[in-house]
Structure formats: structure tokens, C-alpha cells
Amino acid sequence: MNLRERKKQRTRDALLRAALELFATRGYDETTVDDIAAAVDVSQRTFFRYFAGKEETAFFVPRLAEGLVVQALRVRPPGEAPLEALRRAVLESWDTINEAVEEIVPIDLHLRVYRVIESTPALFAAHLRRSAELEEQLARIIAEREGLDVDADPRPRIVVALFGGVIRVTERLWSAGDELSLAGMRQLTTTYLDQVGPALAGNWRTEQSP
């Protein structure tokens, strides 16, 4: 990377950190593009050289994390069952994701913005839309791994929808809890993913009706 590219990356990262800090402290809806640009002492025009708008800054880091999960799934051993491959892709790429995030923004700030996304209607709607797009990508990878036609066999989309549902439940519970830590999020994710198999087996009722 030459000097010019390094300067551009520093400007991008500074804009990103400023945006996320403002979202976390002031709120997403209360923050404008001008506020973000002013925090870095650049023009609005400079901001738009790096980002299409506020929403892109809010999801920049999650998109990076999602890309690493997709990459991890692609290289899972072919003999793994689809759900296990998804589980391991998430849990075993966790440290890589953290390292990649920390190169751009502090982990604490990233986690605080997670709660902003969950509590801001416009961002939460965008998050659900993006989750659906990610699930489709993962389903196509699973179908390719299993030698299936994703449009003819429903199983890849079903297993990914199940997996995605577990992740969304985990995110919601974590964001509503008191422990704003990476360890807490990881533990909750692990616990819920480990319960998928048992949750689908057997009878859930504790008492049988006559």
C-alpha cells in the first residue's frame, strides 16, 4: 500500500469511527452526514467519496464480519453436515473477525453500535434485509457443498434459515442484557448454537395431557 492509499484508508477509518461514536452517543437518527464530516474536519463531499450514506457506515463492520464467515464456510471440510459447518464457520472465525474489526474500530464501540442497530427502527429493518441477503448467499454455498440445486431442493435454505434465526435470537437477547462484552456475546452464541440439535429432537412438553 503506497502513501496515498494509506492516507485514504486513514480518512475512511476516521470517518467510520466518528460516525459510530456519534451513533452510539447521540443516536443514529440524530446524527447527520455533516456531523460526521465535521467530527473529522472534512467536507461532506469528502464523506461521500468513501460512503454512500449513514447506513453504509453503520453496517461497514458487520459486513466485514459477515464476509469472513462466508469465507470460513467455503473452506469447511466437505464431510461436515451443513448445520455443523455453519456453526464452526461462525465460532472458529470469531478471533479472526475480532482482529479484523480492531484494525478499524475499538471492539467496545462496535458492540455499542450493535445495540443502536437493534433499537433503531430504520437500522433494524435494514439489518433484517441484509440478514436475508446473507442467508441466501450461505444457502447457495451449502447447496454447492452438497451438490444440490438450491432452487429445486429446499433443504439448504431451510437449514440456513434455522441457523439465521438462532443468530438473531442471540443478538436480540445479548443486546437487551446487561453485559456488553464480546465474551458474553460469544458465550451466548455458543450456547444457543449448541442447543439447536437437542431443541429439534423429542417432545418439548413436560406434562402429557390425558
Major sheet description: none
Helix-and-strand structural type:
mainly alpha
Query: What is the rounded distance between the termini?
Result: 72 Å
Using only CA atoms, what is the Rg?
20 Å
Describe this structure in words.
The longest helix is centred in the middle third of the chain and has 26 residues. With 210 residues, this protein is mostly helical. The chain is built from twelve helices and no strands. The model has no long low-confidence stretch (mean pLDDT 88). Helix 1 crosses helix 2, helix 6 packs parallel to helix 10 and helix 10 packs across helix 11. It is 75% helix and 0% strand.
How would the blueprint of this fold be written?
Layout: H1 3-25, H2 33-40, H3 44-50, H4 54-58, H5 60-74, H6 82-92, H7 94-102, H8 107-119, H9 121-146, H10 155-176, H11 182-194, H12 196-200
Helix pairs in contact: 1-2, 1-8, 5-6, 5-7, 5-9, 6-10, 8-9, 9-10, 10-11
Notable traits:
single chain, mainly alpha, 75% helix
Summarize this structure briefly.
The protein is an all-alpha fold and 210 residues long.
